[in-house]
Specification:
Blueprint (H helix, E strand, L loop, with lengths): L1 E3 L2 E5 L3 H18 L20 E7 L2 E9 L23 E9 L7 H17 L3 E7 L3 H6 L3 E2 L4 E2 L4 E8 H21 L2 E3 L8 H8 L8 H18 L3 E6 L2 H12 L5 E6 L2 H12 L4 E5 L8 H10 L3 E7 L1 E2 L4 E2 L2 H11 L2 E5 L16 E5 L10 E6 L15 H6 L9 H11 L7 H13 L3 E3 L8 E5 L6 H10 L2 E3 L4 H6 L1 E5 L6 H20 L9
Amino acid sequence: MKESLSVVYKIADLAEELEQIYRLNYETFVEEIPQHETNHEHRLVDRFNDKNTYVVAKRNDEVIGMISVNDQRPFSLDQKLNNLDDFLPEHAIPCEIRLLAIKKQYRGGRIFYGLCERLVDYCLEKGFNMAVISGTLRQTKLYKHLGFQAFGPLVGTEEAPYQPMYLTKKNFERASKLFERMLRKEEQRNHYNFLPGPVEVSNEVKKAWGDKAVSHRAKDVHDVIENVQQQLCRLTKANYVEIAVGTGTLANDMIAAQLTTISSKGLVLANGEFGERLIKHASRFNLSFYTITKPWSKPISLAEIEQTLDKHREIGWLWTVHCETSTGYVYPLEKLKQLCNKYGVRLCMDTCSTVGVMSVDLASVYLASTVSGKGLGSYPGLAIVFHQEKLLPNEAIPSYLDLGKYQINGSIPYTHSSNGLFALQAALQQLQPERTELFREICQEFQKAGMEVLTGENYSPGIVTICLNPMIDSRKFGDALKQKGVHVSYESGYLLNHNWFQVAIMGQHQASNILKGIKIIVEVYQQFSKAKEFSRCES
């Protein structure tokens, strides 16, 4: 058994694998290539089935590709060429390869190569030194890249012509190194990163990240962090900002720790995964607070918030996400600021998915968190907290979370990442403009294809959330996109539970390249919509 990129290549030995082979056989050689009659069972058992050994490619429990090998003469090709042996080299010990089938959404070279690699291993184990094949003319170029050599006349039918070919171990080994390089180049060329993190970064950011590490006590590092702080404050209109080595989770823990110094109760809003996480942050720090919670993506109105603030005058702080990353929903920051100002409430925001993605004005916001990745277009690893007031160290707060210690030490009270700071500095100098029009265009393309998209005036231009039809499994869909080089967000538990996937437009992207990736997503969606074997009811 061989394993690569979560695809397992193995000899089929389970009844369920054979059943999937028969169905894939039908899909390929009845529905796609018209070689056999249709039937109501939608399965095709090969006439050499009892002689065949099947090599399969599997993702989880799904057979996504197969190829068969048979060493018992007469071969299928014997029946098409009366003098088969005359075309083969001297001392050939052949086996026959047949029934190459790969599900459409997984085609492109990598799976085919993996099947061939496992097949060659099997043939060598059995003592064969050559494999013959009837190769479909549509894939002749791919076969030749892997070392197959054509011989003899075309066989088959006018509707389904094939070219006899053979493969030797020597030719495969010679060709496979070149083919691997070709695959790597192709995968790099066809790589589309639509993740909310890690995001695509520029060459300047990569260079800064790769520079030699410098002591966090060096003047150069202090100069860089001061410059980064100034750029971040100008970007957001915040008064102060601290930078720690960590993630958005750490940044929100720092906010929660700071809120423990306020004696009043709070209010936390949640209509998605990350709002619910803020509730957990507040609970872990034993903060006293009320909540307003709604089903995912359902708006929490300003009237509801004001009613709560008016009813509970003891509320002294309000904490919410700016963009609910799990759905793309955006809370109205300016109106929240006005409302909090009216009631004398300190406003705290999680802006991890909005700073660098859209305009964010943190003037008069008490505390706000963000990160070095996502919209800022650098590598993950730096937790960022904006604050309105000067802060002093507080012995009641754990040292690493104490924003006051960061402020009095130039944001470097402990070991810092010079590489992360240099990369963030480079990223801040080339932020992408807001992409509202591109966001709308993407939404329209998905909707034209029949997808359900969470969109509207209150949604971020950096995150497109697609609710898949229940007949399409989001994990299988995301896996298929990954095979095409398109990386979307789908593997988080909250997305899998809802059968959603997301396209994040963050970091350094060319609009034309984004639209190429969107086109592939639409094509794969259309394939899945037509393919019954991918439906949840049959999986």
